[in-house]
Amino acid sequence: MTVLVLFGPTAVGKTRVGAYVAEKAGAEIISADARTIFRDIVVGGDRPPPQILARVPHHLLGILPPEARYDAARFRADCERLVAEILARGKKAMIVGGSTLYIRAITRGLFPGPAADPALRAELSRLPTEALREELLRVDPESAKRIHPRDRVRMIRALEVFRLTGKPISTQWGREKPFPWPLVKVGLICEREELYRRIAERVERMFQEGLVEEARALWEMDLPPEAPILRTIGYRELFGYFRGEYDLSEAKRRILRNTKDYARRQLAFFRAEKDVTWLDVSGKSPEEVGEEVLAVWRRFDPSLQ
Question: CB–CB of 183/107 below 8 Å?
Answer without folding.
Answer: yes
